[in-house]
Amino acid sequence: MTEQPPVSKDPNPVPDAEHPAHARTKPAIGQAPRPRISVLQILVAWLGAFAGIALIGAAVDLLPRLNLLIVGSFGASAVLLYGAPRAPLSQPRNLIGGHMVSALVGVACYRYLPDVSVLQEAAAVASAIALMMATRTIHPPGGATALIAVIGGEQVHALGWGYVFPVLIGALVMLVVALVSNNLYEAGSYPDRWD
Is residue 11 in a domain? Predict the structure, then answer.
């Protein structure tokens, strides 16, 4: 007599449930489930993101002579700073360093590489990643900062190396807002480290 496989109690069994591709959908073995995010935490993150982006936008409108910009990558930085402030890639060194390295790389790729869009774009992002890794300043939105220096259009290209200034100002504004908003929720919670 042959052994029959156990009958699944699940009405819709996944035929390859043990396949490694499903590992990400399973709860971690031996770890407690992640605590739910409180409504207050969500509100603080929303307020921080709103204030950070609004302050940069206000500075762009009120100080036109400074050539400030709202760079698209600031939206991704906001997610990290206000939504995941304890993440290693959300720390001040990563925020400021990642954007600065990436802005410099992006401008250099646009100015000094042959005028072949795909080459400039790919080199900007890949080089920004490499330099962020080498300088321990990995900040994922930095890849977009480098790419924007190449594809950003005439307003960005006209700034040349001056593109670095609005990126720095925007990152600093977002950092100040993160220091205030994250620590209002839980004193001493941000940053985890400065180095």
Answer: no
The C-alpha atoms of residue 76 and residue 88 are separated, in whole angstroms, by 15
pLDDT digits (tens, 9 = 90+) for 39-85: 999 999 999 999 999 999 999 999 988 888 889 999 999 999 999 99
| Count of domains forming the chain | 1
Tell me the C-alpha distance between 157 and 163, whole Å. 8
Residue 27 lies in a domain: no
- The Cβ-side half-sphere exposure at 107, using a 13 Å CA radius, reads 17
| CA-to-CA dists, residue 121 to 28, 45, 116, 172, 179, angstroms | 38, 32, 9, 26, 33
Q: Are 140 and 89 in contact (CB under 8 A)?
A: yes
For residue range 142-183, list pLDDT tens digits in order: 999 999 999 999 999 999 999 999 999 999 999 999 999 999
0.70 exceeded by pTM: yes
Chain-centroid distance, C-alpha 127: 17
* Cα–Cα dist 171/41, whole Å: 22
Residue 32 lies in a domain: no
